[in-house]
Amino acid sequence: GSSLIHQKVALPSEGVGSPVLSFVQLEQFNAVRLVQSIHQSLASLSKVIRGTSLLTADVHKLATALLNQE
């Protein structure tokens, strides 16, 4: 849950273990980074909706994409 959002992740080192293990570690790294990025974007949008933050071009672009189901 929330521990994933705040988890510190480091790029897996190359050449350690089998190629399959390296692939799985890289996929886990990318998945955690993706979840963190989505969380950060939605948190920014939430702050604008609640009126605690100003609308930026990035948040506007995100809101437009969500409204257009993109």
From TrEMBL:
Location of the Dynein heavy chain C-terminal domain: 13-69
Top-level taxon of the source organism: Eukaryota
InterPro entries associated with the record: Dynein_C
Protein name in UniProt: Dynein heavy chain C-terminal domain-containing protein
Organism: Cirrhinus mrigala
Source species taxonomy: Eukaryota, Metazoa, Chordata, Craniata, Vertebrata
